[in-house]
Structures are given as C-alpha cells and as structure tokens.
Amino acid sequence: DDLHLPLNLLQANAEAARCLYCFDAPCIKACPTSIDVPTFIHQIRTGNLVGSAKTILSQNIMGGTCARACPTEILCEQACVLNVSVQQAVKIGSLQRFAVDHLLAKNTAHPFSRGKLTGKQIAVIGAGPAGLSCAHRASMLGHDVTIFEAKNKPGGLNEFGLAAYKMVDDFAQTEVNFLLQIGGIKILYGQSLGDGLSVNSLRNNFDAVFIGIGLSRSKRLGIDNEDEHRIIDAIQFIETLRQTKDKSTVMVGKNVIVIGGGNTAIDAAIQARRLGAENVSLVYRRGEEMMSATKFEVDLARQNGVNLRFWAAPKAFVNNESMAEMVFECTKVKDKQLITTGEIFTLPTDMVLKAIGQSLDGDIFSEADIPVVEKGKIVVDENYAASVIGVFAGGDCIESGDDLTVQAVQDGKQAAIAIDNYLSGTVHQILPAKED
Predict the structure, then answer these.
(1) Of 76, 78, 94, 8, the residue nearest 36 (C-alpha)
(2) Is residue 301 within a helix (H) or strand (E), and if so which, with residue range?
(3) Comparison of pLDDT for 401 and 142, the residue scoring more
(4) Are 102 and 53 spatial neighbours (Cβ–Cβ below 8 Å)?
(5) Would you call 316 helix, strand, or coil by DSSP?
(6) Strand 358-359, strand 217-218: pairing
(7) What is the mean pLDDT of residues 367-380?
C-alpha cells in the first residue's frame, strides 16, 4: 500500500495556506533541483494547479517520483522556516505530489515543447533518472536523443530499486511515459555498455554521449559462503518485488537478516516484514547516529517491527541443513577507526539481504575508453564532462552529492545544458581530454 496517502483538495489548500512565501526562501536552496517551492505552493493556494505542476517540472521533470521518495525531511522541509517556531514544516513533498499528480491525471498535451531543431544527435547510456532527465532537457533544447538501456524497461532505480510502498500503481512508468511525450527521444532496450556497446562506437555515430549508468555492481561482504543461495542482494530482492504483480507470491524467509545502514537496507527490511517474515533484524556495523538512512526511515523500520542491531559486523555464514546462522562480531570505534572486539554472537536465518552499497563496474570502461575513474566513480569537470572529448556523465556514477533520485535528475538536467553549450561551441571541456 501507499506509504503516504495523497492529499485531497481541502487538505492541500489548508497546507498551502501555511506557507509564508519567504523572500530568498531557504527551501529553494535546500532542493538539489532548485524548485521554486513558495511559488508552486502559492499557485496551489490560488487554484492554479497546472501552473504549479509546471513550476515544479520545469526544474525537476521527475518531480512526481521525488515527491514520493525524496527525503524531504532532510532537504526542503528541514529548511522550512516554520521549523524554528512551534509549528511543523509545510508538507512540501505532499503538496508537490498533489500538483504533479493533478497534471498527469488530466492527460493533456505535454507542458513543454522542443526548441528549434539543431540536427544534433545525442546518445544517452541508461534510462534511469539521470539519463531520462538529460534526454528530456536535451530534447527541449532541440536535440534528438537515443537512450541505450540494459534492461527491458526504463526508469532505473525508480522502477527497480525503490520500495514498492513508495511507488504504487506503476507510477514510475506513468512518469516515463509522460516525459517521453515531448518527442525526439528514442529508447533501445537490451543495450549494455561493455557488451557490444562502447563509448567509442557511440562517439563515432553521435555528436555527444551522456553516461548515466548508475552503480550496477553490489559490494561484497567478504565472508565464506557469500554466494550461498540464501544470501541475496537487497536491490535484487526489491527488483523482484517491484516486478511481481501479485506481491504475495514473492518468497520471503521466516527469519530475515538485512545487513546495511542505508535507505535501501530499510526498504528491504520493511518489505520483508510486510511480506510476512516473522523476524527481521537489520544489522549495522556502526551506531544508529552514523547510519546514512534518515531518521524518518529508521523510525519507519521500528514501526514495522524491524529489530535494529548496531555495532556488529558479519563474520561468517554457517550453512546448516534446516536453518543457517549468521555469525557477527561486535565492533567499536577506537582512535577514530572501526575495529572488532572479539565478542561473537549468532542469529538464525533462512534469508540474508545484503545492502552494503554498490559500486561502478570499472571493467566496462576498459573498452569504453574512459581512462579517469577515481574513488570508484567517473571523474567529471564542472560541466559534467569526462576526460574523453564529447563524453559527459551524471547521476550515481559520478561524485556529485547525495545518491538520491533528485540529485541524479539535477545532474542529467545540467549535463544536457552543458552538452548544448559544448555542441554550440560556447563551453569547452576543462578536464585534460584524451584525443582520438
């Protein structure tokens, strides 16, 4: 079921009336895509719902998903000036969803149009938030775009990686279909970088290339029996659930262990519990205050009956015939370093979901001709340009900020603008470029 019930008109008007329409509003600065929050809320208050949605979507074309899944409690809503008084912050995320959903439900003409056609062809690798955002903005700027997507559906993590209770009613595909209505965007499926598809070949056939492939390789625990069938990537578990129409048919263990401290770990743990797991334990190697998951998400896990265990690292997986065990070793911080204490405990399990993060698959760049990869991600300059002429990148595969949908959308949008400047000769790449 939907995690947050949408506002009705009466609720939306009442909530919008609470906004102070601040000058130099801090909520705008807190939004990675710089949505004009006070203006779109004022438009709701005055009954201009279509105009409100256009204000949102002009900055964030995936504003519908971000309204559902974005951690507004640590972004725009945290910055709301009402937090310093006895009142609560304006429910910006709920109001954003109200406006965007209204526009999508009207099913009218696409609110944005293409600029004068340039005749330029842009290749986008990956149909996730960064790639789709880049494609839409590039189309607005008059370029034709071909997206190369490895899977059989577009959407990236919006379609395959967010909890089902955050994206009900197939909203990810509704949003993609809306985005594509602008025209000038073609998606080719089953196209994987490194598997018959290379950046060099795309450079030869397109005027510019944007890489928005995200992070596709799950990190390993580094323990014995890690490839045992009862140890599953949390992302794969969520993907299976998202792609199954009858969620009740998804198999889940009775005693589930989730390893990790981010929002993906929380999503996996809550979904395992809601699917019927009797005991779900989320184990994190550090303290609660060090988790990358937001306080809202952690509290939500507790409300759903998830047991949280801190200061413990996985040490071994012991495979018994009927019930396996996960062995953990207690940890602590000493001299600013995380160390193990030697104290051991075990938890019985028939399903382990690992959510310790993902990394860039660097192997695909050996033939993709991207020589600069630092800290496991593609290095780009301030114009999102990589070190190969005509190649740009954005989203989770670069180091640009928080690994959030809203940040990926911003990267894609800004990269499209940078590509447009590059194609017009206005801006040149700053990184040392590798010539042909």
Answers:
(1) 76
(2) helix 295-303
(3) 142
(4) yes
(5) strand
(6) antiparallel
(7) 73
Reported pTM: 0.93
DSSP per-residue letters across 201-253:
HHHHHSSEEEE-----EEPP---TTTTSTTEEEHHHHHHHHHT-SSGGGS---
Q: How far apart are CA 88 and CA 106, in angstroms?
A: 31
Contact 37, 92 (CB under 8 A): yes
For residue 413, the Cα-to-chain-centroid distance in whole angstroms is 15
Specify the DSSP element, H or E, that contains 147.
strand 144-149
How distant, in Å, are the alpha carbons of 198, 238, 263, 344, 380 from that of 161? Answer: 25, 6, 11, 33, 25
436 falls in which pLDDT band (50, 70, 90)? very low
CB under 8 Å to 264, separation ≥6 — which residues? 161, 234, 235, 238, 355
**Strand runs labelled E in 246-362:** 255-259, 279-283, 307-309, 312-318, 324-334, 337-349, 351-354, 358-359
Q: Which two tokens stand for residue 172?
A: 């990810």
Going by C-beta distance under 8 Å and a sequence separation of 6 or more, which residues neighbour residue 236? none
Residue 187: pLDDT above 60? yes
Mean pLDDT calculated for residue range 90-112: 96
What is the rounded distance in angstroms from the CA atom of residue 254 to the CA atom of residue 348? 10
Q: How far apart are CA 88 and CA 15, in angstroms?
A: 11
Helices (H), 161-208: 171-180, 199-205
Position 432 scores a pLDDT of: 47
Report residue 301 as tokens.
């896990």
Reported as half-sphere exposure (CB side, CA atoms, 13 A), residue 353 has a value of 33
CA pseudo-torsion sign 123, 127, 133, 135: positive
Residues 179 and 136 sit within 8 Å (Cβ to Cβ): yes
Cβ atoms within 10 Å of 102's Cβ, excluding its own: 17
H runs (alpha helix) in 36-191: 37-45, 49-59, 63-69, 76-79, 92-106, 129-140, 157-160, 171-180
The pair of structure tokens assigned to 342 is 């030697």
Structural tokens at position 370: 């991207």
Q: Which helix (H) or strand (E) holds 377?
A: strand 377-378
The better pLDDT of the pair 51, 217 is held by 51
pLDDT beyond 60 at 331: yes
Contact at 8 Å (CB) between 49 and 103?
yes
Describe the strand order of the beta sheet including 351-354 as a list of residue ranges: 231-233, 351-354, 255-259, 279-283, 307-309
According to the model, what pLDDT value does residue 84 have? Answer: 86
